[in-house]
Write a structure and sequence with these properties.
32% of the residues lie in helices and 27% in strands. A hairpin with a 5-residue loop joins strand 24 and strand 25.
Length: 694
């Protein structure tokens, strides 16, 4: 059987042999009513409340007729029937019983209805207690027809409040409903006070009317002489019917309320599963006393509020756990990156529904790589739940590991896709990975079903950087399409790269391209500082709302002195001697102009060797780039790109003694050199330390 009710009394397996000690201490009996068989078991304390011997009751409710007068039985049956048919989770009622000596005594019962997954009531578990002293015989006789209209109005307020509470998700939502125009103030109360039990103490979460806060009562012990503490301690309501009674029973509290014109009050325990989770106080300024019907209504209202409050507390606890899980999966800190300013932001969506729907699988990461490079990642696992967050955490870790191992961007993405596929989950993920060399500004990017990045230039313009993409992670492995094209672009000093998830782009009623254009304009007009820009973007996302998470990463390449950004590039096609001559001339003139004339011959010779090798050993063109770098010493860097992925290798010199000495020459004349994968090809680069003046 599946319990659809939010809660019910939790009874031990050997019940009723071992009654709950809290109930026993408060002289409360308990019962378990199986609606399928019609049998109702009661513990010994319940027998005592009803003045029954064990041998006088055979577990059939009809047997109680000797103790419950017909009128009271019909009223009690009506209350139970309405709760069962109306879909309520609980009910409460005061009724009279006739003891064996013939006297009538007031009794109160509170039942918790358990239903199966179809909503059918299957079981009622509840408590029963003597309420004679609470009500008093004089009040018990006040069944006046004139109050029928008032009872109907009050019952309507209970129904409205209960319906509104059904949509409350957090503790504050519950309090807001109670303070709303359809809340308990329509019962005539001036205001309310609410406290929740935490670690054996009561913490106020709603403090009553303005100016009524009593010093020292923000957090109180359960054993202190306050009405809310008594309601929690005894699991019973406390009705205070006059100012004189208030002053007599609670002398420590009353002096702080004398200016509020309080004439009566009702303090109701919030009980769930026979355990107090808090208490609620209703303060009145225009009435004295409570009729039995009014007490019934207030107790029923307290039961409904208790259920809603527990749901809200469970929701907040589970959300704390879920959000803690997601935060644990995201990087705790972002490493500082020499040569760059970085800002990251994450915003969870606000999605109605079950707990855990407010988190998802969006993530960012920044990965330090060998050679002063850095990897920037943005991604989004399908779904909005804790499963998506868990998959995200695993995927982030393995992608980080693959990148740190030195794999090319395309290999990193392909391996991550295989991992997600082998994880045997039903989730896919989009991702964009950018590997940046901040000394040169060169970025190599791969995209797996993700949206394109944006680049903002120093002049304030912003553009969408088109990156050829492959299938989302997981799907590419499933369909055997693990090819991820690599796009190369360059960030000049002062340029900013934006990676984000689609929650920042998608807008209701607009397509993705419109969203990208809107975001491009927003970035172009945003603050220059990446942290301020990140705050601005996340604020816009919060204002817009939406049902998707937002993750973003901003990386701005810093300017590094007067020589940074000096760059010349020349395209050299095969069989074009004029282009080769122009490239040589460009190198010689630029090297002299940039204050490196002492090494002009070496630089020109090495560049010529690299260009020639590219034209001879590949089928395409060569692109030569010359730039000045600063930082740990001023350097001049030469790069030659081609379309072949084959790495250069040392070869023995031919018979002529000329061919085969290219790499030996490069190694001898340069201060450092290397090879980088660039898309489907490569770049051979070398650097020369040059004087630090023009």
């Amino acid at each position: 059987m599946v319990d659809r009710g939010a809660s019910a009394l939790s009874l031990p397996d050997d019940w009723p042999a071992q009654p709950d000690p809290i109930l026993a201490l408060n002289r409360m009996g308990s019962f378990d009513w199986d609606l399928d068989t019609g049998l109702m078991q009661m513990d010994a304390q319940a027998h005592a409340v009803l003045d029954l011997r064990a041998d006088e009751y055979d577990d059939h409710p009809e047997t109680l007729a000797k103790r419950v007068p017909p009128d009271e039985s019909r009223r009690l049956d009506t209350a139970v029937s309405q709760a069962l048919k109306g879909g309520s989770e609980n009910y409460g009622a005061y009724f009279r019983i006739r003891r064996r000596d013939g006297t009538l005594r007031w009794t109160h019962t509170q039942g918790y209805i358990r239903r199966d997954d179809t909503g059918r009531p299957r079981r009622i578990i509840g408590i029963i207690r003597d309420a004679t002293q609470e009500l008093g015989e004089s009040d018990a006789r006040l069944h006046q027809a004139a109050q029928d209209g008032a009872r109907g109005q009050q019952a309507s307020v209970v129904e409205l409040t209960t319906a509104a509470l059904a949509h409350a998700r957090t503790v504050q939502d519950v309090i807001d409903v109670l303070k709303d125009t359809h809340g308990v103030t329509h019962l005539g109360a001036t205001s309310l006070v609410v406290g929740l039990v935490e670690a054996g103490r009561i913490r106020l979460v709603a403090e009553g009317p303005v100016g009524s806060f009593v010093p020292g009562t923000r957090v109180t012990r359960i054993d202190e002489p306050y009405p809310m503490s008594e309601a929690v301690r005894t699991l019973g309501p406390r009705f205070i019917e006059s100012p004189e009674e208030f002053a007599e029973r609670y002398p420590a509290l009353w002096p702080h309320l004398t200016d509020l014109n309080i004439t009566s009050a009702a303090y109701l325990p919030l009980i769930v599963q026979a355990r107090p989770i808090g208490a609620m106080g209703l303060l009145y300024s225009d009435r004295r006393g409570f009729t039995p019907e009014e007490r019934d209504i207030l107790v029923a209202l307290g039961s409904s509020i208790a259920q809603s409050m527990q749901r809200a507390m469970f929701y907040e606890q589970e959300m704390d756990l879920a959000q803690g899980l997601q935060q644990a999966m995201l990087p705790r800190t972002i490493p500082s990156v020499p040569g760059a300013d970085v800002a990251v932001r994450y915003r969870a969506a606000t999605v109605g529904g079950s707990v855990g729907r407010d988190i998802g699988g969006d993530w960012y990461d920044l990965i330090p790589l060998p050679g002063g490079r850095v990897g920037a990642v943005i991604g989004d696992v399908q779904g909005h739940d804790t499963h998506a967050a868990a998959v995200m955490g695993q995927l982030r870790i393995v992608l980080r590991a693959y990148a740190a191992e030195g794999h090319t961007p395309a290999a990193v993405m392909a391996r991550a896709s295989v991992f997600l596929h082998e994880l045997d989950t039903d989730r896919s993920a989009t991702c964009l990975y950018a590997e940046a060399d901040l000394t040169t500004g060169v970025l190599q990017m791969v995209r797996a079903g993700h949206i394109d990045p944006l680049v903002r230039h120093t002049d304030g313009t912003c553009r969408r950087a088109t990156v050829p993409g492959g299938l989302p992670l997981g799907l590419s492995a499933e369909f055997g399409r693990l090819d991820y094209p690599v796009a190369t672009l360059e960030l000049d000093p002062g340029d900013t790269l934006l990676l984000c998830t689609d929650g920042l782009v998608e807008q209701p009623g607009a397509d993705l391209d419109d969203g990208m254009r809107t975001l491009t304009a927003l970035v172009a007009t945003g603050p220059a500082d990446v942290r301020d820009l990140a705050d601005r973007l996340i604020d816009v996302a919060a204002e817009r709302g939406g049902d998707d998470d937002v993750a973003l990463l901003l990386l701005r390449r810093r300017g590094e002195g007067p020589h940074s950004g000096r760059r010349l590039r020349r395209h050299v096609a095969p069989g074009d001697p004029a282009a080769l001559t122009e490239a040589r001339h460009m190198i010689r003139i630029s090297v002299g102009a940039w204050g490196a004339g002492d090494r002009a011959d070496e630089i020109e010779l090495v560049a010529d060797e690299l260009i020639t090798n590219a034209l001879m050993h590949t089928e395409g063109s060569a692109v030569v780039t010359l730039r000045v770098l600063t930082g740990s010493g001023r350097r001049l860097r030469v790069e030659v790109e081609d379309s072949s992925s084959a790495l250069p290798r040392r070869r023995d010199a031919g018979e002529s003694g000329v061919s085969g000495r290219g790499l030996l020459l490069v190694d001898e004349l340069t201060d450092v050199w290397g090879v980088e994968a660039r898309g489907g090809g490569k770049a051979v680069w070398c650097e020369f330390v040059v004087p630090g003046h023009d």
